[in-house]
Amino acid sequence: MTTKYHAEERSEAEAARAAKVGDCEHAETFTAQTLTVPSRRETTALWAAVGSSPWAWPSTSPLLFIPVPQFPGEDGSPLTSVLISGVAVPIGLLFFVCGIAYGIVAGTIDKASNVPPMMASAVTQVAPLIVLFFAAAQFIAWFGWSNIGTVLAIKTAGVLGSPTR
Question: What is the pTM for the complete model shown?
Answer without folding.
Answer: 0.51
